[in-house]
Amino acid sequence: MEAPLSLVPGPRGLHTLHPKARPLTSTMPLARSLSVTSLTGLEDWEDEVDLENVVLFEVAWEVANKVGGIYTVIQTKAKITSDEWGENYFLIGPYMEQNVRTQVELLDPPNPAMRRTIESMNSKGCKVYFGRWLIEGGPYVVLLDITATAWSLDRWKTELWDSCTIGVPWYDREANDAVLFGFLTAWFLGEFTAQCEEKPFIIGHFHEWLSGVGLFLCRIRKLPVATIFTTHATLLGRYLCAGSVDFYNNLQTFNVDKEAGDRQIYHRYCMERAAIHCTHVFTTVSQITAVEAEHLLKRKPDLVTPNGLNVKKFSAMHEFQNLHAQSKARIQEFVRGHFYGHLDFNLDKTLFFFIAGRYEFSNKGADIFLEALARLNYLLRVNGSESTVVAFFIMPARTNNFNVETLKGQAVRKQLWDTANSVKEKFGKKLYESLLVGNLPDMNKMLDKEDFTMMKRAIFATQRHSFPPICTHNMLDDSTDPILNTIRRIGLFNSSADRVKVIFHPEFLSSTSPLLPVDYEEFVRGCHLGVFPSYYEPWGYTPAECTVMGIPSISTNLSGFGCFMEEHIADPSAYGIYILDRRFRSLDDSCTQLTSFLYSFCQQSRRQRIIQRNRTERLSDLLDWKYLGRYYMYARRMALAKAFPDNFTYEPHEPTAAQGFRYPRPASVPPSPSISRHSSPHHSETEEDDERYDEDEEAEKDRQNIKPPATMASVPDWRKQPKKPSSEASTSSNASTPTLPSSPSDLSSPGSSIIEERN
């Protein structure tokens, strides 16, 4: 019999879990934590685990509710999880009517136990909805309406204090929502267990602190649920980094209780820490976050589960270069209008850089990016470069409308286009008639006075006596906005002398926008370089999305994505993945390094950029959920073994002798060759023929280093129509790399791995 959970007072009056509360580790200790070095770190299983009698519930506040990156994690992972679990996979999230109308098809539960559970809860005053999320994989969702049970908030907060001694202040609406959502989740899981005639094994996978209350309530109430908790970013870490603290050099010295209390998030911190210490398996999304969690939350993660993407959604097979050209043309049209009257630079020699994400000025690296752009502007000017850089900042901020001058620019561009088309039609008609009678046209008679007057008026309309605007919208806090204030300080005002232009678009991109009518994916494809010099980035979906679309990017060694790619690629910059050192360098040195990256990229020829994009796109398999989803599979099996040791076994193996594989440099050296035989449709005779680059040969060598993902087996019949049990019923300093199975159904196959080292 497992000892009861106990919670003891914490140093600031609100209370945290006693270390003994860590579940089942005394009976089933792990020999070591697991790492993601070389996409391995998973143990071999002697017998395949039978999932017929197992039900998986995945709980997150962002199920069918887009708030941040967790939505992308769950949405893109749904397909492979549904393929593995079939009808035994359910997502639990909050009911948001505006999202349900467009994303969820409400249904009657096909599962009798699920139907009885929902009916029972609804009869007691709850509002529980069941349906299918309209995304790839079409998983079932259970949506809990927290507003319908808001009358229970005080009673549940009292119970939370009595059982866990965690107090939640009345004014913190987000924490109150977490309490309501957590109690409803625990109620639902308990009710489902009671309604199953033949008890299944239940896995509850909880994401982030907003779902954490449900996890530790399951443990306190001793529900038969194997629990997993994944933190995508620690609460305290995000707050500390936003406060300009030397975070990573002081991880071991922070007084975490005091720091959380000073920032008035101690109750949230207690919820997060309680969930982490109560869960059977604790995972994080990157090794850098694992180190952070170990010091701030006082538990080492059992497993690192890197975030992936549905590569099929973002890949365009061999057409991605054409898509880049098409999307770039649409961005160029916007630039023509935005810079009317000052369009004194060659768009064919203009590079588009961008940074996108949550508006966290320091955490996302917007501060260092702006400083590097000022230095880049100086270098391009003093060296007489013909290249021009247009840097986009796509960060949503508080605005009240579009900037009138920006809208006027697009109107002027359209007027010029209409004028040119009108003159072209008249010119073409006269030319056609002249040729019909067998005469060469008299060029002096092709255009009359009216045509010249129309063209002169159009030219005069493009005159502008002010610089092109920096911001495309009217900012509500213009005088205090950090990006605008920094631009004023460094003097990048889009003048004719500047070789670096800046455009701040404080709104999410949309194809219906009257200003820049492109969606985010199309915009990324049209740019040349994504710049994400984040100081705090537990994973980093923005550079990952760039990679699968074949767009080079700059990341840092403080982001999960940057560390992940640095581990698996011997020369990341050769593949268009530039890793900025923000951990072991001063801010000024990091800015100098970023400037060097940007300037060297500007010096590349068009052919070199095409070759680099080809290489970048070939890395997309590294980020495919078909590979990275296996870490989640392993976490679930580890949780089953720890929660139900009589039914599932887990025998840790000794570390193997296999060394981590580092993805080799491309066949051609230097990383950006000057000649391409296959990638560029335009071969320049002026370039020296001193280096051979064979795209097909290099791509074939890369394919040998990354095995193509095995096709998922079809869902068994018993998962399509669940049987009675389901319907009735880390980080580690050790760098060793055990093998990773080559297919989801081959978890017991020794010696198989995604990446092989070739001689």
TrEMBL record:
This is Glycogen [starch] synthase. Pathway: Glycan biosynthesis; glycogen biosynthesis. Transfers the glycosyl residue from UDP-Glc to the non-reducing end of alpha-1,4-glucan. Part of the GYS1-GYG1 complex, a heterooctamer composed of a tetramer of GYS1 and 2 dimers of GYG1, where each GYS1 protomer binds to one GYG1 subunit (via GYG1 C-terminus); the GYS1 tetramer may dissociate from GYG1 dimers to continue glycogen polymerization on its own. Residues 655-759 are annotated as: Disordered. PANTHER family: GLYCOGEN [STARCH] SYNTHASE, MUSCLE, GLYCOGEN SYNTHASE. Pfam families: Glycogen_syn (PF05693). It catalyses: [(1->4)-alpha-D-glucosyl](n) + UDP-alpha-D-glucose = [(1->4)-alpha-D-glucosyl](n+1) + UDP + H(+).
